Amino acid sequence: MIPEYHKLLMQNAIGAYFGDQELSEVIAGNMGQDGIAGQNGHPEYHFDDSEFERSFVYLTKVRSNVIQYVKSGSNYCEARADFGRYTHGHQDYYAHSNYVRLWAQKYQVKPETWSGELDFKDEEILSSPELISGHFYSPWEMITLIPTIGRLFIPLFPKGSHAYLNIDSPYKNAWFPLALKAAELRTRYEIQQISIELYQENPDHLYKFLGKIINPFNGV
To answer: Could you tell me the residue ranges of all domains in the chain?
Structure first.
């Protein structure tokens, strides 16, 4: 997913949970995953190369870091950065895999007739042997990133390629609204779960992490 949509998604999904400065730190952590260091040799950051197990192991570790930083009261800034990294991975899961296509196939949904409803954690699809994510054919695939004309080269790449599978923007293909919706629902779900866990442990730590006083059981 291109940076502007990661940012928009974060603002829409979790903006109500965080103070302005705290949200900016989370967004910086999220978007930092698409930096040069994050793009080279780290398929687990983005659910690329069908590295689902490796990616979930990585995200489990990052989530644990968030919880430990906050519970110890040692580094709220790093906790927010890690939460940004954590959400980035989950968002790319839907943008870089064929999850939404498989979901649409299962329920006979087409982009043009989609109602706006979507299950972002359908267990049957999550464990399906048909679930894949794209491999980036570097450097050749870079040509597909050229604005406007880049998409003309996508049919030249294998169906398992990043270029063919990924749903990075509304300009890429008609599946983008579904991927964006799934990513937004997942992001909101993750902040709800983490907020509840931290609130039950120590509400004051949660408030310092978020920069706001909220009760996650009451909704936001």
So the answer is: 3-213
